[in-house]
Amino acid sequence: MTISLKSFDPPKRVLMGPGPSDVHPRVLSALARPTVGHLDPTFIGLMDEVKALLQLAFMTSNDLTLAVSGPGSAGMETCFVNLLEPGDTAIVAVNGVFGKRMKENVERSGAGCVLVEEEWGKPVDPDKVESAFKAHPEARLLAFVHAETSTGVESDAKSLCALARQYDALSIVDAVTSLGGIPVKVDDWRADAVYSGSQKCLSCMPGLSPVTFSPDAVERIRSRNRKVQSWFMDLSLVMGYWGAGAKRAYHHTAPINALYGLHESLLMLAEEGLEASWARHKRLHLALRAGLEAMGLSFLAAESCRLPQLNAVMVPEGIDEAKVRARMLERFGIELGAGLGPLAGKIWRIGLMGASCTANNVLLCLGALEAELTALQAPIRTGVAVPAAMAAL
Ligand SMILES: Cc1ncc(COP(=O)(O)O)c(C=O)c1O
145 forms bridges with which residues in the sheet? Predict the structure, then answer.
């Protein structure tokens, strides 16, 4: 390959896929501030603030709350490697791509995995989870995805965490797509380990994974028989780095500028208010929905479990979904997501997350989608989507 010797100048996109979402200009500008040392007293102060802001976002007073230096998958792996030991049994609920990834994590930790499977597009069924606990009383952990990005489905986190407690197990909750977009009430749910990602409803760049652990989870980590197999993710070591105040010990060099970015995005969330952010995601989802339904399009998920920030929309019969996405990107700069696994070719995933969740984007997306579907002679109603969305706004 020949090297261009030119700086990379990315095109202007409107990120309306499953993530990353648009990064807010305030975050971009925070990222460009001068780098300080990772043990600089000012940076230690910033880490303390990030922790406090994450506690606010997660609605928790958990002391072990921090940002893992790595993407959502690193947060996921941190939870599994610290809470499981070889020979343990974990129940994993799978209703999409990310539940399957959890299963991989359990198996690679040397633990046994009991799967509770659900059709893609449906929420995790607490009754099936309860049956799994009854059949496997030795299970020490329940893991599930709160907001399945592959299907646009929300599962009932509060009930599932309560079941785990009832059967004396800890819970691991994937809140990568939910944090900031819909309620994630860690203390109210009594969830034990929750991980998220910076690149979805937090309007931040990809690459950091906020996590939080309950006192029971910390106790499980402290009473392990064996060392965590991953040195980098071993929380007993990371705790010394993210611990209180100036007593920090070097563990790894934190992604300093990325943490400036996360700090700015969490500050914006605190300024907007959690409830207001959830309400914005809901309101704009309802406007998008009004437009899509006016066109004659439908959703994969039932209304009762539909995520506002991830809209899984059925592709009309006979339409090449990839062609529509390619044209949306080329002509309007809009990125939409494709279906994964059994849903490949059947759905589009339209994200309304964080800074991408705006009225302008809803109207732009509806207008562009209508134009492209009309060009492909799809059987849709024309001229009604944007007015329907406007009316809903
Ligand atoms: C629900 C869910 N879990 C985990 C992940 C993994 O996050 P990352 O891609 O940042 O590693 C994603 C990413 O889209 C996700 O949507």
Answer: 174
One domain, residues 253 and 387? no
**pTM greater than the 0.90 cutoff:** yes
| Two structure tokens written together for 72 | 């959502």
Q: In terms of residue numbers, what domain contains 375?
A: 273-392
Maximum distance among all Cα pairs of the chain, rounded to whole angstroms? 65
Does residue 195 share a domain with residue 297? no
Nearest protein CA to atom 8 of ligand 1, as residue: 72
Q: DSSP character for 320? A: -
| Nearest residue to 120 via CA among 339, 289, 293, 292 | 339
CA distance 334 to 339: 16
7 in a structural domain: no
Task: Determine contact, residues 101/76, Cβ cutoff 8 Å.
Answer: yes
The three-class DSSP label of residue 147 is strand
Q: What is the mean pLDDT of the chain?
A: 97
- Which residue from 97, 177, 178 has its CB within 8 A of the most atoms of ligand 1, so it is best to mutate? 177
The answer to whether the beta carbons of residues 120 and 341 sit under 8 Å apart is yes
Q: Which of 242, 270, 298 is the last residue of a domain?
A: 270
Q: Is the CB of 197 under 6 A from ligand 1?
A: yes
- For the residues 284-298, what does the mean pLDDT come to? 98
pLDDT digits (tens, 9 = 90+) for 308-339: 999 999 999 999 999 999 999 999 999 999 99
Q: Is residue 15 part of a domain?
A: no
Q: Is the CB of 126 under 6 A from ligand 1?
A: no
Look at residue 144 and give its three-state secondary structure.
strand
Mutating to test ligand 1, I would choose from 76, 79, 103, 149 the residue with most ligand atoms within 8 A of its C-beta, which is 149
Q: Is 133 in the pocket of ligand 1 (CB under 6 A)?
A: no
